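Why does residue order matter? Because the sequence determines the fold. Keep that principle in mind as you read this record.
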Amino acid sequence: MWRFSNPVEVSFGPGALESLPAKLGGRSYALVTYSDNGVFAELARRVGALAGKPVAVVSNIDPNPNFDGLAASCRVLGEVPTAPEVIVALGGGSVLDAAKVLAAAGGDFATVERHLATGQGAERFRRLPIIAIPTTAGTGSEVTCWATVWDTAGKKKHSLTHPSLYAECALIDPTLTLGAPRGLTVSTGLDALSHALESIWNVNANPVSSALAEVAAREILECLDPLSRNLGDLALRTRMARASLLAGLAFSNTKTALAHSLSYHFTLHHGIAHGIACSFSLPMVMRSVIGHDPVCDASLRRVFGADLDAGARRLAAFLGALGVSTRAVDYGIAEGEWESLIDSALAGERGRNFIGKRSALR
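Structure:
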């Protein structure tokens, strides 16, 4: 027996942003986005022209949303004279994750912080609706019900998870990704690839999640490298946005696995961008899982072809062509430490989703 469920209404395609007024339906909204005087300032003006002035703008979003920054964001929302009826999240994964925290906490981050520490108190969440408008192709946060929250001081990564945190709708407009620079485009694309592959070698995999993941992985392997060399190609941007969405839908049901579990140490302790941190180990993980499960092998063959060992080499070469090393030592990890990190990652919540065995990892 298996099940697949995702409640997010998706509008996809160039111009999807234009449907925002209809999705709001006259409700007041708070805009959550990045603070800059360039791309996002212009996007915020576009949103205002389409949907009217927001009752609040929360723009102090860090690349990896942490306790201090999120507490400040919640204070901004809490000081609004009239509370918004909807949150409009316009940005990459950090903005989408921060919006979920704001939707749950309202003006009081302590509500979320207590829940992350104890697992209790979700009944106190505000549960504001979210309209998610991603500006990168990679995180899939617009179709998941969790947000990554970082305790930078405590060197811990938390996952805020609740069914109420699914967005009401996602407006995926590939034109909004055209301004993303090469490094961000590659990193977020590799995050999506990790979502896809980790949905396949996952104890929670099912026929729907795997079918979505297979299409997503094939697309990313075909178009991310050409896109990295031609950032203005809207057709490639559209393919990547679609692949990211499909990967997001896949792991919205399976969650991630070992590569993501490994990544948290690299981001917290070495400052490695998330998309790189969660993808450099994929060839190693793939080699370890070959032959472990016939259903998984069949899925991987639909992505990489009949020879899975050659497929793992192709995956490593793909990463190398994008400038991503697959050697832990190149990220400042000694051999003895690497073995310990693998053990810790397997014991973590996401690591326990991995279908393989420790003895095969090397």
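The beta strands are 9-12, 29-32, 56-58, 86-91, 130-134, 146-151, 156-161, 169-172.
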